[in-house]
Amino acid sequence: MKKLIVLLILLVTSSGIHAQQPGENEMGAWYMYFGTNKIAERFSVHTEAQFRFYETASNFNQLLLRTGLNYHINPNAIATAGYGFISTDGTFEEFPNETNSKEHRIFQQFILKNKVWEFLFEHRYRLEQRFIDFGDRTDTQHRARYRIQVTLPLTDTFFLNFYDELFINLQDDLFGQNRLYGALGIHVTENSSVQFGYLRNQFTNAVFDRWQIGIFFNPDLRKVFKKKEPLD
């Protein structure tokens, strides 16, 4: 009987430890860089790097690198095709049966912008084809994403930014995740800004809270590489 009690205690203790492994109760952080750089009248290059942690400055979770070519149909409509590389540490993975993974991702995207009073709206529609290597097996997944973003200028320097993004799986369970975000933004220069925000990332069986610091740098590369007029 004593052995049975000890065994039950060990099982409960180990299950409690395992339940904490997804890191759901940790306040993590995402540190991000985004760039949109004009290279021609209707074309620009998107660059992006994200470093995600299960805790504020430790316990690495994910590295995301993404780039794409943007075609500016007009000032309020942009079409993009691009590629992303994602390396994930599965220690606190929300999917407990997975470990580390590396992903190659192709995406297609369409953005529409409009303004209502002082509110700047942005609708982003994205399709993704995901090729994931788990080490002992590979998988191909497809999903759709829709994000509505609202930006409210407060002054010439400060602004508020909010978005909600829904992820829809195109196989298996329909719901993938939902991201709700709010931030205070600061215009540093004419083509650069920084945002300090909070993200609530909800999955089917878990919710993660993440601080976010995003740096946005959008110089016009046409001006940088423009040939100087020859001197007389």
UniProtKB/TrEMBL annotation:
It comes from the Bacteria. Pfam families: DUF2490. InterPro entries: DUF2490. Residues 1-19 form the signal peptide. Keywords: Signal. This is DUF2490 domain-containing protein. It comes from Flagellimonas spongiicola.
